[in-house]
Structures are given as C-alpha cells and as structure tokens.
Amino acid sequence: MHAWLCETTDGPEALVWKETPTPEPGEGEVRIAVKAASLNFPDILITQGKYQFKPPLPFVPGAEYAGIVDKVGPGVSHLQPGMPVAAIAGTGGFGTHACVKAAQVLPLPPGFKLEDAAAFAFTYGTSHHALIDRGALQAGETVLVLGAAGGVGTAAIQIAKAAGARVIAAASTDEKCETCRALGADATINYGREKLRDALAALTGGKGPDLVYDPIGGDLAEQAFRSIAWRGRYLVIGFAAGGIPALPFNLPLLKGASVVGVFWGDFVKREPGNSARALAELSQWYAEGKVKPVIDELLPISELPRAYRRMAGREVRGKLVMTLD
C-alpha cells in the first residue's frame, strides 16, 4: 500500500508519500480499501501535535474516509468483504488501505455515494450533536452559525433548517455568504466588512440569536455572546481562528445564558448508542434530500498538500475530498 506518512510534528508540509506494508486486521478490526477521504481542521492540528488525540509517530493522518471492506479480522460478523462503508478512525484515511475497529465503521445504505460518505459523519455528526443534543434546538428558534461556509458550518445550516429553525449564517466573504444562502440560510452576515453585533441586532429586532454555533473562536466569540438572547445557548465547537477566547463570566449571568461544550469525538466513545441513533437519523435525512455534504473540490490523493494549503488559508467552502483509485 501507499500512504501519506506523518513522521514528525512539523505540520502538513512534512508529510511524505511512501510505500508501506499493507496492514492486517486484528481482533475486532476490518481492513478498508479507501476510495475517498475528506480533510477536516483537526487533520491539520494532529500533524502539528496540537490535537487532543496524539497518535505515536509515524502515522497516517485522515480521520474520515469511505471505501470497501476488503478483509475482516477475527470476531467480526456484521461486516463482510465487499461492503461499502464509512469510517471515523482518527487516522488512516490518507492511504490506500486502513485497518480500523469494526465499531468505528458505518455500513452505508444503498444510494449513499462514497464521496459524500467520506465528508459526512464528522461534520454532520458534530453539528447534530451540537444543535439537537447539546443545544436542545426547538423549531422556530434562531440560530447564528459562525464560520458558516466551512465543513461543520454548512452541515449546521442544513441541520438547523431540517429542525425548523431560522438560520443566520455568518462568513468572511460575500462569496461564502452566497453559498450559505444557497443552502437555505434565511439571512447572512459578512463579518469581514459588517459589525457582527449591529447586524445581529438588525436581523433579530434586538432580541439576539437563541443559539450560537461557534467553530471559530477568536475575536468573534465575545461579540456573538454579547448579542445572545435571554436563555441563549452558546455552543463551543472549536477554534479555527487559532485563538481560544476568554469570556467574562458576568455575560452568561446577565443573559441567563449557557456556555455549552461540544466534543463529538468523546460523545461517540462515551455514548455509542446515542451516537448511532443520531447517525441513523442523519442517514435518513440524506436519503430524503434534507442534508447533503457541500464538496468544494474532489482532488486526487496526490494533491493532498494543496488541499492542506487551501484549508489553512481558509479558502474552502464545505469539504475537500481526496479520491483514490
């Protein structure tokens, strides 16, 4: 097999494409012939040694991928060679083959495209857990989605609309705002040239959003929280802007508001039954056309370095997906 190997924590630039021994599945594992793998922001952090999960070197990055089961290890009965599947394994996707625990593999229903499956579970699972589970979103509420044109942001727009919410999508350019409107956002804010608080006040009649979905952090966080509605919920998804904001504790007090942490990876591990039910609902929504991954570009795996550069430069709308023959 061949794979992009991370041999140091010097970032994506240090990845090297190498031939390595094809792994054999162990007890409770399957081997997947990878056909598509998507790039997520944690795939940058993990190559820099900055992600919560730090695999031993060397490793193959690529947390999310889809392909065909080509070998089954001992103790696995519900998966068989030839089955199309998706996997969330933390690593392994940026190679031609990957061995993964069977519990981390999702059999795909008929009609689920492998390219879509490779761009689905991570972002849609995160956004469903955030909005529906942690945020207790109700029909008729208003959701502000920050970084709305990115992978988790585009998923959040679709899920919030499927739940009957009003969505205000905030992004950094007019082009990204146009993408959000095409996905069903009711209103958009270009925070590259508009003042976030003024725009939110105008769009909500001064009430503010009931939920704030924030995968960005940085300077926008306090501005958004100061605009939140009474009893609002602020969903902390991540810190793509690089800075981890410090929030004055008097702000949640004055708004009767909650700061809610969202860590989908641990949710999957700690609550596998709830996670499986959420993914089943999302798969049904996909079949019904309510949600569909926004794929910015399909690239051959050889162009992974360019994909990393595009993501680091915040140029991506939706997801970048690598394809393998």
Radius of gyration: 20 Å
Average per-residue pLDDT, rounded, comes to 94
CATH homology-level superfamily of the largest domain: Medium-chain alcohol dehydrogenases, catalytic domain
* Largest β-sheet summary: 7 strands, mixed
DSSP E strands, number: 15
Level-2 CATH architecture of the largest domain: Alpha-Beta Complex
Return residue spans where pLDDT drops below 50 for at least 5 consecutive residues.
none
Provide structural commentary.
Helix content is 31%, strand content 24%. The protein has 11 helices and 15 strands. It has helices spanning 41-47, 114-117, 121-134, 151-162, 174-182, 196-204, 220-226, 250-255, 264-270, 272-287, 304-312; strands at 2-5, 16-19, 29-39, 64-72, 84-88, 97-101, 105-107, 142-145, 166-171, 187-190, 211-214, 233-236, 258-261, 295-300, 319-323. The strands form 3 sheets. Strands 3, 4, 5, 6, 7, 14 and 15 form a 7-stranded mixed sheet that branches. A 6-stranded parallel sheet has the order 10-9-8-11-12-13, with helices on both faces. α3 (121-134) packs across α4 (151-162). The mean pLDDT is 94. This is NADPH:quinone oxidoreductase family protein. It comes from Ideonella azotifigens.
